[in-house]
Each structure stands twice: as structure tokens, then as C-alpha cells.
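User: For my dataset I need records formatted as: sequence, then C-alpha cells, nothing else. Please produce one.
Assistant:
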Amino acid sequence: MATKRSRKFSYLTGRLSFSVITASAKSNARDQCAVLLVDIGQLLTLRSAEEVPRRGDFLSELGIIEDAAVLCVGGKIVSVGTTKDALRDPWLKKHRKKVIEMDCGGRVVLPGFVDSHTHPVFSQPRLLDFEKRISGASYEEIAEAGGGIRSSIDGVRKAGKAALARQVSAALDDFARYGTTTVEAKSGYGLSLEAELKSLEAIRLAAREWPGTVVSTFLGAHVVPQEYRGRSQEYVDLVCDEMIPAVAKRKLAQFVDVFCDRGAFSASETQQIFAAAKGQHLGVRGHVGQLSETRLGPLLGYQPASLDHVDYVNGADLRALAASSTVATLVPGANYFLGLSRYPNARQFIEAGAAVALATDYNPGSSPTLSMPMAMSLACTHMKMSPAEAIAAATVNGAWALCMADRKGTVEAGKDADLAVFDVGDYREIPYWFGANHCALTIMNGVPSVSDTREKM
């Protein structure tokens, strides 16, 4: 069993029962809430003098402060230091009655996780695919039989926007329970103009109801839908000429993603889509090298924020990736759930100097997990990342993968007040206790939310 801290947080001024706060109270809660966390056993700040993604040995530097305190006001972090120094602060002495003080009882506090790769807009789990995979069918065989991504399309096309928004909202609340405060959310199971716009609108509706931060990504180029089989170029033209302009006009996404791999879209098709996205002033990112190798050089020319999966990559492309600003986002949950023996070679990426992030790849077919601690555990056990590297990859480098490092991913004055409190005494326990949730409290943009999977504090 994990070593337990004191069973309850001690509220030094006032007593509140926290739960996820919805949009009607979100703005007021953030603007009026002042929260002081004290008696933090280990505060992982991940602060750095350099505003760059973590690479190489730098990935292990967590900036730990012991017996620490963090003051958050108006949704922002305003001071970070020791508990002794915090309690001497003149501003705090003057306003103490207005501040919610929480004694963390020696727990571990770190930046809220930044999950930079998720697919939350779907209507049903893919249980038949799950059974077929157990009986020996491959990912591609399942897809050819009508399963896989295409099997989720019908449900999304038939579902109403409100129903999809409820599905996304439920997922966002679950993300928060595991310590995630920022989520990238993709469309990609509609694959028609109407269904893709509906999916992105559902993400926007859900985001308005969640205290955390959601970054939307248009993934109309997930696979070629059945009605365009054998006519992939026509579908690519539809994505470029109609879908991307419509998404940009409605301001429904910050990024455009493409699944560039065997059975999905070619490198040349991906470049056409990236060019169309750039023409609409949207960022780009890509699923690359999950099933087979794709040359990265031509794609890097479009300065993607991240290239994700990258299970297959050659040495020359790895060097090019390391020399670029693009983050390599590794998603070991997919490898685990698909029963693959091969995982991304994280050590090779780190030693080459590439910026590495971790994400859940939450989706109904290949990675149905919302737990960043589980993704971190897999990174440690199957990709030989150290616990410190996994934490940096799941926080600050995830923020870089979403072009949000100016606001997210570290605990320092001026950043958004996104924090996760774990009921453990050492940060290494977070990936160590796999399959368990030891997140006790999440603070999203200054709004506290207790994980209801744990005993209420």
C-alpha cells in the first residue's frame, strides 16, 4: 500500500466541499478564489531559467522544493516557496481571512498534467474489436473487417451534438480526477463536414463547462471514410477545400491533425492537408509512424507542434526531429492495449536530443484510458524513462506540444494555477502504483476540485 498522508486536508480558514465547478460558476470561482497550499512534502516546480522544451539530461530536472507552499489568486500562481516564507508574506497576513488555506500534510504537488493527445468524441466503446484482438486479429485486420476507426463513425454521425458534448464532459471530469488540467481534444470519428463540425462544437460546449483548459484539434483526416474508398484524393480535397476553411471560419480548432500511416493517409496527402491548414492560420500536428515508417523530413518543413506515436523512425529522421522545435509525443497506452511488444524507443529519442512528451491517446479503439499516471508507468516500465523524465514529459513538454508553455506545465509565478496533489510521499510513487489513482485534489485555473475516486477530504 502507498504510504498515506494525513487522511484529510486541514482547511486553516473556512471549510469547503469541492467538486467540479461548471461554467455558471467557473468565472466567478476563478476570479474570486485565493488558495494557499502549505506543508507540501515535495513541490515539483519544473521551473527553469530557459524557456525551451526539456531535452536530454534537462528532462530530469524537476525543481523540487520541500516543505513548500504555493499561493494562487485569480486563477494564477502568484508566489512559490517554502511554507515558512509564505506564512511571513505581508500580503498574505493582510488578506488571510479571504484565503482558502490547505495543509497538504506532506503530500506531493506538481503541475497539472497536460494530456496533449486525446480522442474524446465518440459514442460507444469498441468491444467487438477488443474481443477480436484477444483472439489474435491484428489492428489492420480488424480495420479491413469494418472495425477500427470506421466502426465509430456511424455512432458519431447519428448522435446529437448535446449527447456528444455530454460524453466529452464526462471524459473531462474523469481526466481531472487523475490530475490532468489541460486536454487536447480531437474530432475524427465523423469524417463528413457536418459530423466533424458537430464534433468540434461538442468539444467547445464541453470545454465551457469545465474549469480546466481544452485545446481543440480537427482530425478530419483520420482515415478515408467508406464512401470514399478508392477515391482518397477526393476526400483529401474535401478536407482541404471545405472542412478546414469551415473549421477556421467558426474558430472551432487550434490545430489540424492527420493520421499519416499505412492504411490511412500518405505523406504527400498529409503535406497537402498541412499546407491547407497553414493557409488558414491553423497549427498542425500528426499521427506518424505508428504502424510503419514515414519519412519525417518533408513534414518537419511545416513546423508541426508535435508528431505523435513515432514507433518507427530512422536515425536520420530522429536527428532532424531533434534539431527541430517539434515535440515527439509518445503514447504507450496504445501499444499496451493493442498487445504490441514494440514500444517507442524513448531512450533513443532522449539521447538524440529530441523533446519528448507523454499523452494517454484516450480513444475507444486503441487506448481507452484517461490516466496520465498509467501512461507514465508504462513509459517507465516499457520505455525505460525515469520517473522524473516521465513527469516532465507529462507536464512541461506536453505544454510545449500544445504551444502553451507560456501558461502551462510549470509551477511558477505568472503561470495558470493548474496543480495536482497526490496522496503519496515521494513523486516516484505516481508512476510506481500502476492502475491506481492517488490524485487527491486538482486545481484548474485556480478552481479546486476533489477527486471523487478518493475519500473526500
